[in-house]
């Protein structure tokens, strides 16, 4: 057990953050890097990913990039093998990549249903399945799944997303119970309403904005950087006996009716 000062230190750890060229993933990647980790950024658009990597390197972060689609199991397996060859075994996996396809449930297309389930739920399974063997073999690893308020709560037009995020919460528990004895901790973070590219249209809608500010005990939207403390905790030795939990970082929203 490290001394208190080293409990949250990620020096020497390799972290993979999926969907990290922008938004929450980018903020999480930066936070883990600032805590000492070597961070591998992931996305589907090579140019955008390189831009993100260059910005983080400019701030003194140690980062590499891996372009792959989390829904493509062959691409996932190949990318994980490449990362482990170049950087060494992955100690920390942050399953962050996620999308929205909002539509009223009765009109939701099958394509929009499948796309959201595939990326937000099957993706985390595929990436974790590719990385778990080496974590199990070494007897240590941290998995952080980025869930949502919608892992617990629903609102109209996002049934596909709520189904995926509810599933991801249970996938987190499943990972924890299967792998806890082998030294892996799998936990989740449930961000509340945070200002990102994905929520920009909601925040720009005065009525929705007002509703969120009223509905959130903190009275405001959150910022992506506000997830970093929870992520560093769940990625570090500080959480070695914490498993299968979902930590809400939501300004108190889930606690309020
Ligand atoms: C929406 C939002 C949410 C948030 C987030 C909340 O349409 O209601 O996009 O789903 O992005 O996941 O936890």
Question: Which helices and strands, and how do they pair?
Answer:
Layout lengths: L13 E4 L5 H12 L3 E6 L2 H13 L4 E5 L5 H15 L4 E4 L14 H29 L2 E6 L12 H21 L4 E8 L8 H4 L2 H10 L12 H8 L10 E4 L8
Parallel strand pairs: 1-2, 1-4, 2-3, 4-5, 5-6, 6-7
Helix pairs in contact: 1-8, 3-4, 4-5
The chain binds D-gluconic acid.
D-gluconic acid binds next to loops.
What this model shows, in words?
With 257 residues, the chain is an alpha/beta fold. Helices cover 44% and strands 14% of the residues. The N and C termini lie far apart (40 Å). The model has no long low-confidence stretch (mean pLDDT 97). The structure holds D-gluconic acid. D-gluconic acid (GCO) binds next to loops.
Number of strands: 7
* Number of structural domains: 1
Order of helices and strands: EHEHEHEHEHEHHHE
Largest sheet: 7 strands, parallel
What is the helix tally? Answer: 8
- CATH class label: Alpha Beta
Q: Uncertain regions: pLDDT < 50 for 5+ in a row?
A: none
- Shape label: globular
Q: Radius of gyration, rounded?
A: 18 Å
**Category by helix and strand content:** alpha/beta
- Strand percentage, roughly? 5-15%
Helix content: 40-55%
What ligand molecules are bound, each kind once?
D-gluconic acid
* Mean pLDDT level: 97
CATH superfamily: NAD(P)-binding Rossmann-like Domain
**Which architecture does the CATH hierarchy give at level 2?**
3-Layer(aba) Sandwich
- CATH names the topology as Rossmann fold
Strand order, main sheet: write it out. Answer: 3-2-1-4-5-6-7
Termini gap: 40 Å
């Amino acid at each position: 057990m490290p001394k208190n000062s080293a409990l949250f230190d990620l020096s020497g750890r390799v972290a993979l953050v999926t969907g990290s060229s922008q938004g929450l993933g980018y903020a999480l990647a930066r936070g883990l890097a600032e805590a000492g980790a070597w961070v591998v950024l992931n996305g589907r658009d090579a140019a955008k990913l390189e831009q993100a990597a260059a910005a983080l390197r400019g701030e003194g972060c140690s980062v590499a990039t891996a372009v792959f689609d989390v829904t493509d199991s062959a691409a996932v397996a190949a990318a994980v093998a490449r990362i482990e060859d170049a950087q060494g075994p992955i100690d920390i996996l942050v399953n962050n990549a996620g999308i929205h396809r909002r539509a009223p449930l009765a009109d939701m297309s099958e394509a929009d249903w499948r796309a959201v389930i595939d990326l937000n739920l099957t993706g985390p399974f595929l990436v974790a399945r590719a990385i778990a063997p080496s974590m199990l073999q070494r007897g240590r690893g941290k998995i952080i799944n980025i869930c949502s308020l919608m892992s617990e709560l629903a609102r109209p037009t996002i049934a596909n997303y709520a189904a995926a995020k509810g599933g991801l919460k249970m996938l987190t528990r499943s990972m924890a119970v299967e792998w806890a004895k082998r030294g892996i901790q799998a936990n989740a973070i449930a961000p509340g309403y945070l200002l990102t590219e994905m929520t920009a249209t909601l925040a720009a809608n005065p009525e929705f904005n007002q509703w969120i500010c009223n509905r959130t005990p903190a009275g405001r939207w959150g910022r992506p950087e506000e997830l970093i403390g929870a992520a560093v905790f769940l990625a570090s030795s500080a959480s070695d006996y914490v498993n299968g939990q979902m930590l809400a970082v939501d300004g108190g929203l889930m606690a309020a009716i």
